[in-house]
Each structure stands twice: as structure tokens, then as C-alpha cells.
Amino acid sequence: MITSLFMAVISAAALFLHAMRYQPFSIDPRIYLLVAALVSLGVMVYKILIYPFAVSPLRHLPTPKGHWLLGQTVKQFRANSPHGAAVDWMLEFPEADLIRPLMLGNSESILVCSPRALKEVTQTHCYSFVKPKFLARTAEGIIGKGGICFAEGDVHRQQRRCFNVPFLVKNVKKSMPAMLAKGEQLANAIGETATGNDDIVEVSSLILKATIDIISKAVMGYEVDSLADASKSEFYLRTMDVMHLSTTDQIMLALDNFFPARKWIPIEANRRFLHAGKVISELLTDHVRKTIARIRQEPDAEKDLDSNHTDIFTMIVRELIERGDPLSEELLVCQLRTLMVGGHESTANSVVWCLHMLAIHPSVQTRLRAAIREVITEDSFTYESVNSIDYLDCVIKEVTRLYASCKASLPLHHEFVCSPLLTLSNQSCLCCAPLYMTSRYAALSYPLALC
């Protein structure tokens, strides 16, 4: 809409200048302003009232009824939860793979509902969708710029190949000792917190610290140990400054969608956020340099994945060196920040939701405890023994289905897609793929499909 208005004003100005060249005093300049207004009005009427309903190639998708100008924007603001409006749309079209909610000014968006549609967007045609620029600008202060999260096309393929071998199951299994040690430390911390508290025990912060310690140790090869004493861990404190946002931080985050508000608005919240990001980058840059120097100095006999350093990041650096790829410190720091943000927050949320569901379903808790004790002993606490508990696997899958740790994916469609399920033109259109909705797709044969 703004682009159309701008073009209308430019066109009217061009006409005005052209006329002034030949007839400088014959036409009142106000006429040109009127022409500009009429052209702008016509373009907006076309964009708002005609194109979405009579011309758009997406007009055949199910479209919820909304305001003639605001679309579904008001309904989204009035919803009782972030996904409340999407739930209503899915109930209105229970078997639709894709839904087209119209937003402000009847701008089009696509809601991905079914698992098979999600597969088409995130796997089959994943490179036909890109991350929106506003999202990349917003996330830059948290995970840096250039990492795998916002890489596209061939750059993403190249970076992903370097992650394939380190994230094989046989390599991830090598992190079990670190996870077991941190799990025992977490259990002791919860036990100390529960002493003298008969009613409610707050465990969310302890779980968050434990997951940060595990991700930093097992994935990054960086020792944090915030569970022992968080006040002494600079990395943990600065991570909390970045991840736990106040109301002011959330406003700045929203403004970042339109312009770099963090850098341009000199307030305390922005200074704290930028300082935290700078400190994290400095700490991780030093860690990257030490890791690269250590790997280059290793004897040839130790340059395999069975050496003492079994963290994922060490394996990634070894993979890059073996492939002969350049080692960019800035890119590696971005990868570390991406792994930390994508690993600790989602893991902590999943564990908290799992404990919550077990607390309100004591029969499931009792059965799960019995299934674990039947298999696990102090001597048999291995990856294979844990993986053999089928009921534990079912509980984890059901919790992550009902309460997905990742809220939604926001790919921006930018090129032609044609498949039995998706047929999209090359016109850019924002897609929303909320995992909360996909896991509750009405066609799935779950008794809690729309709870």
C-alpha cells in the first residue's frame, strides 16, 4: 500500500514537471495534487477491495470472513492467546491444508494447517521460501548475522553439510556423561529447594540453568556451570539479558521490524541489550580461537571423533578443516549463538511442560516412573537403555505435540511452487506455520486434536 502511494505521488510529480515545461502557467498545480490523490485512491481500492477477491491466485484458498478493511487484525488482537485466532480458523475449515487469513488492508498471508502442508513448506519446497528480512533484522541482536538459521539457498546447503556428521546419533551419544552429571546436579538442586517448601517448588529457573549448562558443555564445548553459582557466570548473566525481555525490550523488538530501534534509540534497555550481545560475542570469539588453535595442534592420531573433546562444535570445526573450508571467526560465533538459543530455550520449555503434564496426570506419572525403574539402574544408565523405554518415548512425543517448544515458522514465499498440494505464484506472500496448530490438525486421529 505504501509502495503504491509512493508510485502515485511520483507519477503525479512527473506529470506536473512535464506540463510545467511546456505550459508553465496554464494549469493550476492543485489539479496535479488532485490527480495524485485520485490515482493513489484508485490503486488502494484495487489493492484492498479488488485484488484479494477477484485477481489474486490465492483467492481459491479458504478465507475466514473478517472486516472489509482490517481483515483479521482485530480478531488477532482480541484473541485470548497467541494462537486463539488460528484455532478459530481451523475450526471453521477443519480439513483445509492451507487457510488464507487477510490482514490489515486485506494483505494476504497463508496459514499452514496440516502436517503434509508443513512438510511441503519446510522440506519438499523449502528453498522456495525465505526468512523475512524483518525477522532476520530482529534476530540479529540475539544470534548474530550469517548463521545457519537465516542462511538461504546454496549457502544454507553448504553450512548444513558441515552439521550432518557432528549431529549423527553416534556422536550425540557421546554427550551422555555430561548430561548425566548435570541431571544429577539438577536433582540435588531441586531437592535442596524443596526442603522446607511443602506447597510449591519453583523449578523453571533451575531447569533453564541446567539446559544452558548442558548445551554449552555438550554442544559448544564451553563450561558455564550456572547451576552451581549463576552470579559468577558472565555468559549466563549476559544470556539472560538478551533472552529475558522486559516490556520495554518487547516494544523495541517490535520496532526492530521496521527500523533498527535497538541501535538508534538511546535508552537503558537498548544499551543493556547491546552490551550483553557484545560481551557474548567477545566470550565466544575467544572460545572459537582457542578451539581452532587446539585442533590445529592435535596430533594426527587424535584428529578423529573419538578423542576426548566430543562436543558438537569441536566436531564441526574438524569437519570444516577436513573439507578445506575457510574458518571465519564471525560465522562460527554466529553458529554458536544459534545453537545456544535454539537449544537451551526449547529444551527447557519442553522439560517444564513435561513436568507440568505429569503433575496434573498422576496416573501417567506413576506408570512412567514404574517403566523407568524397571529398566534403569545405576549401572545401566546408558543411551540404549533410556531409548528402550517405549512409554517414556510416548510421553515425550505427546507433550511436544501438545506444547511445541517452537511456536511457529514464518517463511516468506518468493518463487513459483507447483505441487498437488501447493500451487503458489512467484509473488511474495508471508506464510505462518504454527506447530501448535499443525499438531492439532482435525484430520489426525487424536482424542485431544483440538483441546
TrEMBL record:
Key word Ubl conjugation present: no
Gene3D superfamilies linked to this entry: Cytochrome P450
Transmembrane feature ranges: 31-55
Alphabetized UniProt keyword annotations: Membrane, Transmembrane, Transmembrane helix
Keyword Membrane appears in the UniProt entry: yes
MF annotations from Gene Ontology: heme binding; iron ion binding; monooxygenase activity; oxidoreductase activity, acting on paired donors, with incorporation or reduction of molecular oxygen
Pfam families: p450
Family: Belongs to the cytochrome P450 family.
Protein name: Cytochrome P450
Native species: Trichophyton rubrum (strain ATCC MYA-4607 / CBS 118892)
